[in-house]
Amino acid sequence: MVLVFQLVVAEFISLSMPTIAAVNGHAAAGGCALALCHDYVIMRRDRGVMYMSEVDLGLTFPCYLSALFRAKFVGSAQALRDVMLRGAKIRGEEAVRMGIVDSAAHDSEEEVAEASVRLGEQLAFRKWNGQVYAEMRKSLYPDLCGLLGLVQNGVANSKL
């Protein structure tokens, strides 16, 4: 199962389009990791937590997940420690302050869906080159990509 999930993470990191996770409830363990694979995370204000339950269950993290979390928790070593080593449950507004969730100002599933679709439409309007976007994303996460065996292809597609 761990290998299958590693392949899923590699696919998300390699996608040729922006990705948005709409979190309407708890995102625990693999669900939390899956949400953090996305470029943007939209979460409910009143319901749900981001939570890595492995420490509570006596399980370890594969190195690639540790690399994903290090990449996403850039500004907060304490938050990273608390999530990974204490099993801290992070509510939406706190996750926004930590920088791992983009928005948690939504009070219903419908509002989360609407905000996610609105952001998706804004991003799609930009009509970015998908191959360039995928390479840019990979460049943000060199340690993770190394562990996943993903290589950068150095795509250049100027509009000048």
UniProtKB/TrEMBL annotation:
Extent of the signal sequence: 1-21
Organism expressing this protein natively: Dipteronia dyeriana
Pfam families, sorted: ECH_1
SUPFAM superfamilies noted in UniProt: ClpP/crotonase
Any one GO biological process: fatty acid beta-oxidation
Keywords recorded for this protein, A-Z: Signal
Matching InterPro entries: ClpP/crotonase-like_dom_sf, Enoyl-CoA_hydra/iso
Example of a GO MF term: delta(3)-delta(2)-enoyl-CoA isomerase activity
Keyword Cytoplasm on entry: no
GO CC terms, sorted: peroxisome
UniProt-recorded name of the protein: Uncharacterized protein
